Every structure is written in structure tokens, then in C-alpha cells.
Predict the structure.
Amino acid sequence: LSILKSIYKTAHNKDFEKDYLCSSVNDKKQFRVCLEKDLEEWQNLIIRKNCDNKNLYYETIREKKAKYDFEGSVITTNYTNFAEKITGLKTAYLHGKLDWFEDINSKEIKLLSDFSDEAEIMPFLFIPSGVKPVISLKQIEQYKIALEAFTQSDLLCILGYSINSDDEHIQNFIRERLNQKRRVLFFLYSGDKDFTYMKNDYCAMFGNSQYLEIKKIEKSQDFRTGLENALKAF
């Protein structure tokens, strides 16, 4: 609910509970259909509002993809569709997605509108946790996309993502890539005071590999330049 509130406010600058929930239909099935459609619309509206802004990191990726015509994919632990919609790249949602729901009894993962009125459902989202249980083929499909990117791509860029103890599975994917002598490029957004500490922390986490490069970014132009230079190398 907190995610929905945030997305609705960003899209419409209105209060979700007061403006949306109070005006929603009472029929549960119809509400589910409306929410699924509206959620897509809200995310698209946020994209339209911001996509002309050249400071967006996803927009930069789309721009470089058009210029260099590379194949690629996105691995995300976010629940929104922004990465997929803006970059146009195949996206692996490792921790779930806003419009995916799980039937509590059958464990089926589907869109809201695909469930019967009687189905007991909950959002298919994985919160930060050291344990990520595999309960569905949909998860395996997402991990397959991610695994191919981790193991086969010429360059793995990590942006806007802080690796912590809850994401040991992702740490291990990165370690395996480095062990295979494949490049990993971290873009760390950080002030002067924190950068050295964070860089040393990541180097310690991944064994200070020669294939690990860490770049400091303070503004979007730093990312644009860093990505441009990295792509030129190929």
C-alpha cells in the first residue's frame, strides 16, 4: 500500500486513500481490474512526465542502446516497470513486480484480473530478507534472465543499487562473474567522505578483483560519460 500511495502521489499529486480508494467501485472483481489498469497508467504517466529529462539514468541507457545497438537486459530488485518501459530491454524482476499477485492457496502467480472473485490473493513482492524462497516457475524464469546476463554479458553495469546482507544471492552471482574473469562496472553515487569507504567495502566483498571497476558519480552526467567510455571499449 505504501508503494501504491507513493506512485499515485507522484503521478497525480493527490492522496491515494482519499482520492482513489474512496471513489473506487465496491465490487471486488471490478476493483481488481481497475487497479491493474490504473497501476499501469500511473507508471506510464510518471514516465511521460520525466522521460524528456536527460538526467534520467534509464533514459541514458536507452540513448546509448540506440547509438551502439547492443543486446542486453536489466536485472532489478525494484517492483515498478520503469526500467523495462524506458530502456526497452528485457527485464528480470528478481524480487517481484507490482502487478503480480499470488493465490494464497494454489500459489499461482498471475495478474490481478486473472483471478476469480473468490480467490484469496496477496502481492507477489519479496521484502528485504536473507531468505528468498522459490515457490513459482515465474521466479525461475526471472532468475534465468538474470543468470544469462550475469554469466554471458560482455559488461555488467551496476547502478543505483546497494548490496547488503539481505542480497547474498546477488553478491554470489557477481562473485561468480568475477571468477570467470568478466568485467563488472559499479557506478557509486556518493559524496567525497563516503566514496573511499564504500569502494573499499565493495573491494573487500568481492576480493578486490582486477575485473571490478568502481566509478564515482555525483550527477547524471558522470554516469553518461562513464557508460559512454565503457561502451566505446567494445
